[in-house]
Amino acid sequence: MSSNSTGKLFTVTTFGESHGPAIGCVIDGCPPGLSIDVEAFRTDLDRRATGRSRHTSQRREADEVEILSGVYQGRTTGTPIALLIRNTDQRSKDYGDIVDTFRPGHADYTYWQKYGIRDPRGGGRSSARETTMRVAAAVIAKKWLAERYGVLIRGYLAQLGEVTPEGFDWDAVEQNSFFWPHEPQVPALEKYMDALRKSGDSVGARVNVDAEGVPPGWGEPIYGKLDGDLAAALMSINAVKGVEIGDGFDAVAQRGSQHRDEMHMDGFTSNHAGGILGGISTGQVVRASIALKPTSSILIPGHSVNLVGEPVDVVTKGRHDPCVGIRATPIAEAMMALVLMDHALRHRAQCGDVGEIKPRIP
Amino acid sequence: MSSNSTGKLFTVTTFGESHGPAIGCVIDGCPPGLSIDVEAFRTDLDRRATGRSRHTSQRREADEVEILSGVYQGRTTGTPIALLIRNTDQRSKDYGDIVDTFRPGHADYTYWQKYGIRDPRGGGRSSARETTMRVAAAVIAKKWLAERYGVLIRGYLAQLGEVTPEGFDWDAVEQNSFFWPHEPQVPALEKYMDALRKSGDSVGARVNVDAEGVPPGWGEPIYGKLDGDLAAALMSINAVKGVEIGDGFDAVAQRGSQHRDEMHMDGFTSNHAGGILGGISTGQVVRASIALKPTSSILIPGHSVNLVGEPVDVVTKGRHDPCVGIRATPIAEAMMALVLMDHALRHRAQCGDVGEIKPRIP
Amino acid sequence: MSSNSTGKLFTVTTFGESHGPAIGCVIDGCPPGLSIDVEAFRTDLDRRATGRSRHTSQRREADEVEILSGVYQGRTTGTPIALLIRNTDQRSKDYGDIVDTFRPGHADYTYWQKYGIRDPRGGGRSSARETTMRVAAAVIAKKWLAERYGVLIRGYLAQLGEVTPEGFDWDAVEQNSFFWPHEPQVPALEKYMDALRKSGDSVGARVNVDAEGVPPGWGEPIYGKLDGDLAAALMSINAVKGVEIGDGFDAVAQRGSQHRDEMHMDGFTSNHAGGILGGISTGQVVRASIALKPTSSILIPGHSVNLVGEPVDVVTKGRHDPCVGIRATPIAEAMMALVLMDHALRHRAQCGDVGEIKPRIP
Amino acid sequence: MSSNSTGKLFTVTTFGESHGPAIGCVIDGCPPGLSIDVEAFRTDLDRRATGRSRHTSQRREADEVEILSGVYQGRTTGTPIALLIRNTDQRSKDYGDIVDTFRPGHADYTYWQKYGIRDPRGGGRSSARETTMRVAAAVIAKKWLAERYGVLIRGYLAQLGEVTPEGFDWDAVEQNSFFWPHEPQVPALEKYMDALRKSGDSVGARVNVDAEGVPPGWGEPIYGKLDGDLAAALMSINAVKGVEIGDGFDAVAQRGSQHRDEMHMDGFTSNHAGGILGGISTGQVVRASIALKPTSSILIPGHSVNLVGEPVDVVTKGRHDPCVGIRATPIAEAMMALVLMDHALRHRAQCGDVGEIKPRIP
Q: What biological processes does GO assign it (chains A, B, C, D) (predicted)?
């Protein structure tokens, strides 16, 4: 199976480099009959887009999605859906001076070691530009999951550097450019980011993503566990260094009597598990959290070597987010959606549709 | 692809329930000519075995591996290697009272919801018993990686409940039953565990695992990243709720100038990345860390429901570890080994063997 | 994905060598709740078994299937079903003189070239012994397809050397040891085979297999077509050199006006297509035909070379069928069943269960 | 894995409908460093193109390939290669009258039954238009196989209706628009086709394809056999109803003493096996043959039903080949190339590169 594909039954294959002619994806396995049009992609692509605020990269991308196949008269036909976005704002000259240099913290060196050749323009294939297509593909997954099962997937920025939310309100999340769940902190965050940019440095972030309405029974033991697949999908996002399900690393210091989620006749009394037990959804909210490292492209010079092994100092010019995590929320949602979509189909393959098998407990 | 399989080219498929007749695995894709015999499995299976100390489950398993295929005159032939271990110590009666009850924190409920039927004996397929076969399969992977590339994979217990190591020495790890890297703390840990068992409760743990000697270039963008595959593999271990690569969640509060690993002519000066950039190995130590939740099977009664929806109190008798993390070290090593083995083969498929492509930088 | 696995969702992985300790398989993806017991395997294994008549190899195999996992209280649980058959009648000494020789027409040479090592006992992994597990796995597939959709799969010997049936009656097929559809010819076939054995030579055969009751809609364009998957599955049977769907090679000299199957209000008027159009089932009988080459293991000496390149004459002693095609019927049925089972699950993954999507035409 | 993908390691995913905006493919797993440019595609696309002679469909397609990704400065980078061809000559109105009708012998009915919706324009996804991308992708495979291993893949038309070649000369094949291997017959073939077109009918064809220079050892038992994968790949070509390897169905009536290929010190003395034994290449020419049914789109009216089940007569206007087999030669070559490319990579994954394992026999 292609390493540029994700999903076993709802299979998304992405292609494209940051500064090549285009990026795109092919979605195979989509159920037929789903209504879809190019407008459907705009909201989430805008949420992900660079340039949405002064705190993210100033590269402006039109991100106009063209549907090349798989949709007829506004409905999916069951054949592969190809989506294409032309790259229209490639200032390759910005990257001219890194052609012969390995930027610290970047994939420059590893691509070079692996392939003996790399497209240095904007990071080539390793650029976060690729995540645009994940978001686009996930628009379809989100729509189907919502229409058929009432699944709602949404995320927020749960930590920005050392700052954590002092309150929580889902309504606030979409009201500010940080996806921050506590509106009163937003002005302080803006100052924080301004100072950071001035310093030429960057910070990491944490993003949480929830899926509500997931029926019990999605996920496949042992190596197709829902949490295992989520871990792979989330870790594949650029800059992610850690993934948690439910309480995650907090579980290390917990007691069993504290962590286990007890059940009553009307359901679970807590959700330390993050909605997954034994790799299968419990019917509670599926909850994941990811750690994103600070942007490696910063204005503070760093030591590195060039292609002939000589020491060089690297300053990354170009347009870069001082915190890549800020626009990671829609991407994390996208990966959650793709994994759930895949497991929805996998579940009904083996077990029939949700509700076909009727255990004695509702 | 089977959900009970892991690995694209070095594919391990496991089968078996905790209290069924046997557990086993089929390993497909192993390079031919590797010398292997049944003795090879003993060390790691003993390291993983329950009953190795009074702090782990008292179930005694002979864990005698039988090689059913794929090995001729002591060498792998390239055909599938099937390994079988008979279950010899199944005290199913221990589990009789949970047949009609969902134990909190267990997969009982989710298997029931998914399949409408479950094998309740010892957790059936969701038991950690399955990990025995991962360890067995990984013995072969470890051996090939060591012989061909000099890769060394080893792990240790990095946290037990709230206790962390106060020193570090690889030599200590194998000298105590906790895989603890600081010998002087071991007596205190034993007291800690005795008190825990007396209380009827359990704790979580953190396990770290390192792979040294991994050549640069292993891992495949975008959805076959080395860290993505590690995340899936490690998250698939029973009770794991979090995975980190390198600095993991610590990266959230770091600055870019601090996190990025600079390079000099003689290599990297730090390893915050955990040996992976852009999903591809850098040539440094590949480092992962996992969080294991506290054992859900505890003697303290918990609220739950039975198959007909009535409230019940559950006390898990039977033999259980008060900390499943204690014997997770060899399992984490196993998953690291299986992922690296798979990527070693994937790399040489696309790029030829290590060193065939010769970038200008060593 | 493992090369010793077949099927995307109903995945069967086989292992084992002809003269190793055992052969077996792991079936992953089976729907839960199907009743199954060891007796279920006997009929088809007996049909396939060597030793069923004097015209097939005299090796006697008990072929007792042990169910190692995935079945609880007589029902499938949704977890992997492992089946094991011990090899009890390995007369390895029969093969002693071919250890250093490549038998013409056998896989001896190619395994040697590929792996640099081979298990020469009875052909090792390349022996038709492996097909026992296909038949066993297919028992489960046949049962599920029959119970859920009323699918009936059956085959017959359609040509033996130059002899073709002079009549056709499904009832006759199971009444003779050739799976021959015209009883009056059976005595002549027995004489034919006796003469053939006396001559020390062998012949090829053609086997046809039909699946009735397959609903329209199974099969996935473009590279998961039902006929494409059937072709792979049938070609993977030992000695098969050709596969046809429907009219097969006869279509070459046909006219379009003759070949195309017209439709009336009550269905198709012919079935030249073999029940598949565009890779998807039409609802008619799915029909495939295979060519099996003559057994390569014959008593007539053949020229070959040994491991050091010297010319040798090879006479294959041991127990061999003068026509491998005679017992290929149950194997061809098995592959048809495995492919249909896989596509039944794939169809309901993407499109819901049969009948969920309701086109306006019944 | 996507059903619109072929190949395990050299994975080609195609997308697009006959009359949609574009067709395209994504090639994942290509070794880095291969020189490639848009001109490389022209020869084979022209060979496949409709409109190349008056005997094939008169639709004229520019078939200008755009490389969207994976190539930098004229060399493959190891990242996915996306190829795009815009559809520029879609006369959808030609198909207006078949929107509500199922054409006999076409996939109209089965797509409708499977998906409940279909793109009727030119057959949509089921059109042979899709094979353009196979040919394009195979250009890369052919080039790599030729440069690295000296593999040469070429095919020819081996039967046209009832006409077979009366001589054979590889040089002739590319000199006529039929890919016919015997030049003197070409004028007669042209008359044959003219008469056929005048009659409004169509005929089937047989295409043979050879691969020379394939090293011994490619192919993987049991379900990844080289012949099994070839069978699937060739059967997936539109209109193919049969596949043979080597002697194919002729083997049915052969004797073992006649079929088996004997070996001498300087190699095999015959090639009835078609270069494959036990699913693995022998080092001889790999030889396959396919049967293509007569075009279903003919001017002679046929009985069918419409979407509401009423009987209708169908006449397929539009532009259609009276023998689809005429331009199938480059497509068959393409599928042979894709399968061999995939197995070249699979072989070096498990066994190292060709020649790394050195059996004692050359």
A: amino acid biosynthetic process; aromatic amino acid family biosynthetic process; chorismate biosynthetic process
